[in-house]
Amino acid sequence: MKTALILGASGGVGGETARALVARGWQVRGLTRTPRSGDGIDWRIGDAMVGSDVLDAAQGVDAIVHAVNPPGYRNWATLVLPMLENSIAAARANDARLALPGTIYNYDPASTPVAHPDSRQAPRSRKGAIRQAMEARIDESGVRGLILRAGDFFGPRPGSSWLSQGMVRPGKPVTSILSPGFPGVGHAWAYLPDVGETFARLIDRDADLPRFARYHFAGLWDADGAGITDAIRRAVGRQVPVRRLPWRLLPLIAPFNPTMREMIEMKGYWRHPVRLDNRSLVAFLGAEPHTPIDEAMRATLTALGCG
């Protein structure tokens, strides 16, 4: 039986990957700072920011999925790369495959309408630059690496996402939709259970992967910006109004709100389309896992408590 350690197994990508690997017969360990149980996961108490905790949890594993973020998504610039170093050290000690969820934020949205796995990276945000640095660090470390880049996440356990943190209000009926998109501009979305299943299929075929593998997950391509809002309307069964995010007002709030500053940095990815080319992924797996959008959106809104 193969064994994987999931850092971030209580979150979106990590949790879905953990469940997909369990379904494929893997033994899965999850590192958690507070006691947990369930999901078929062997939960280990520890902190991803403590190197010895990661090493202890990783003993004898075949794969490590680094899908963890600093608590509250704070202090990225100072914590993210040191945290990754703990996973690299554990992967090296066990000759394990180190898998990292990637994003579209590695690319310049104004000049990359279609991003291939080897397209030039030119991030236009601080978090995008950190994401680029994370991938580069895994590559130069010499461990066996796997990067799966995807668009903006949504799903039953989405954590911090555009859909659950702004477009709708968790725990509230959907009476309106706040759309960050610009009319006619395409946007890439990724349903988390499909991302987790893709990661599981790739990890399960570790022996067939190159030493450092990069793939793109195409997911749901919303060609004109209306696809995701129309899916929300169909899921709730009514024509709720769509309001546009007032991008011009955000700079007035940004000096007092770090979240607003980060949102402004992401504006280009809504102003310009960045589509992920998944041909190499499909060539390797045969197909990309895909849940119909209406089914995916119903599951997402039900889990968020949005009637």
UniProtKB/TrEMBL annotation:
Protein name per UniProt: NAD(P)H-binding protein
Domain NAD(P)-binding: start-end pairs: 8-151
Organism: Sphingomonas rustica
Domain of life: Bacteria
Lineage: Bacteria, Pseudomonadati, Pseudomonadota, Alphaproteobacteria, Sphingomonadales
Annotated Pfam families: NAD_binding_10 (PF13460)
Gene3D superfamilies (UniProt xref): NAD(P)-binding Rossmann-like Domain
Cited InterPro entries: NAD(P)-bd_dom (IPR016040), NAD(P)-bd_dom_sf (IPR036291)
SUPFAM superfamilies linked: NAD(P)-binding Rossmann-fold domains (SSF51735)
